[in-house]
Amino acid sequence: MCILRSVRSNKSTLSGAARRWLLFIGAQLAIVPCAEAQCVDPSTLVKTTVSISRNFDAEERKVTPGIVGIGGTGWFLTPEVMVTAAHVSEAMRLSTTQWKDIEVWDGKSKTVVATRIQSVAGSLTEKMVLVNLRTPFSGAVSLPVRQEPLFPEERVVTLAYPKGHLRFARGRFVAYGEDRQFSGAAMMEIYEGADRLVLDHGASGAPVLDCQGRVVAVVSSILTQTLNFGLHSVKVSTAWQTPNVISMPADALTGSSRSE
User: Fold this and answer.
1) Pair (126, 147) in one structural domain
2) pLDDT in tens, the chain (260 residues)
3) Which domain covers residue 111, as residue numbers?
4) 120 and 203 both lie in a single domain
5) Structure-derived torsion over alpha carbons of residues 77, 187, 211, 215, reported in degrees to the nearest 10
């Protein structure tokens, strides 16, 4: 809910400059809460994003002993094209030539879909992958991609499937990375209430959206550290008011073919 309150003043006691300054402050106090209240609710976008996984066969398991499969998050550019992080498709051993089955979970049912890599997008070390679906995914809702860059403190929302469970989160864009390790990456601070680890393993590939529901970035990884206490270890996030999610700017997708 957005509440606008008027401010009354005695014009006879305020100068013109003072009245203008008071009106400016009042406008800022009124506009900022309203802008946040109008941000798209990620829970209304559940048909745009899915959990994706691939179980390895016996031969593939020999290559990576102890690993039976890989999971991540994907979202629909079209009902026939899904976007995820490159390291997810690489870990799944998807191919540009061979159709391979993956399991798609939309929060209600699981569907096996034949897929292959259409193209790779992005100029960073970590890239985004467009994955072709042999059959259009039933009920899929496409997400638009924003071309304009983000501005500092811009509000963002996301939905993802960490550990195969649908989670919603909000946050803000902090800055584009400038150091060598994160150069060009979109650095975000994303959380759900007090939970700064809401985007855990399996969230890679999730869309980060602006308040209009346009994809501005794709989740790559989260920033954490591990604290050791004797035989026990605890994973913790970064401090509040600092980035905790590394993502890839989505504008690189705007020049990509939306389907083949």
Assistant:
1) no
2) 233 333 333 444 444 444 443 343 343 333 333 344 589 999 999 999 999 999 877 777 767 766 777 899 999 999 999 999 999 999 999 999 999 999 999 999 999 999 999 999 998 889 999 999 999 999 999 999 999 999 999 999 999 999 999 999 999 999 999 888 889 999 999 999 999 999 998 999 999 999 999 999 999 999 998 888 877 888 899 999 999 999 999 999 986 644 34
3) 45-133
4) no
5) -10
Contacts 24+ apart (CB under 8 A), 152-155: 154/210, 155/35, 155/36, 155/39, 155/210, 155/211
> What is the C-alpha separation between 75 and 208, in angstroms, rounded?
10
CATH number at residue 236: 2.40.10.10
Statement to judge: residues 125 and 148 lie in one domain:
no
Shared domain for 214 and 119, answered yes or no, is no
